[in-house]
Amino acid sequence: MTTILDGKSLALKLRGDIRAEVDSLRAKGLRSPHLAAILVGEDGASKTYVNSKEKDCEYVGFYSSVHRLPADTSEADLQKLIQSINENADIDGLIVQLPLPKHIDATKITEAINPEIDVDGFHTISVGKLTKNEDTYISATPFGVIKLLEEYGIETKGKHCVVIGRSNIVGRPMSILMSRGGNPGECTVTLCHRYTKDIAMYTQMADIVIVAVGIPEFLKGDMIKPGAVVIDVGITRVDSDNEKGYELMGDVDYNAVKSQCSAITPVPGGVGPMTRYGLLFNTLKSYKKKQGL
Fold it and tell me: Which one of 132, 161, 235, 262 has the minimum C-beta count within 10 Å?
């Protein structure tokens, strides 16, 4: 029987744990953790995601401030805003929602964030510490995947893990985390990408497949071996005749793959909610450092 790795229910439970901890901190007279977000432009998916983060913050008792800027905001003005937030001692976490308009250099903006409040884990210092297995902020999606595997008791030691996708946000950090010491970890990792020839040759040998390519239903049922664990990170809006005009699809051909694997994440309701939990976790971690807790 296939286990459905229900990120929605798990994230709700874990958010409840954070909420209880924040209640305890406030009962001691301490302020609430504060997460700030910057949204530039009118990207629909980004707006939806930021709105969800606001609701998450409200639920766990965090302060949440969102700076919504027009698409023509200059790079210099955006950097000034980031600097002002960096200098605000009462802000524990800052995220700049990606993607940014084309005239803004996303790398420069990421590097402008103080690493101490880089709760997205995108700064070079954060990534460098991750590579060296030092304490740092793990970017929210890879962190969410690791937590999902941990909470469901998925054994990873000595397993062969294939990661499809090499982005700095998901694929590369995911490969590092799955190969590090501890559990989840201790995997032999193969990192595949758009130029990998015959990807199915690798996925058919994998005990764990993590897919993050942004191509709907990329992973087919005949591309995995029976009993594999499949983690679907992708989520794409595809035109549909339903009321919304679209449906959300993952990178995995869910129905075909589900019949072959031992565990799988649904889309939506799998990795997505765990990503949002990861952001809350990192913000609380930053807060505790500032408070000396």
Answer: 132
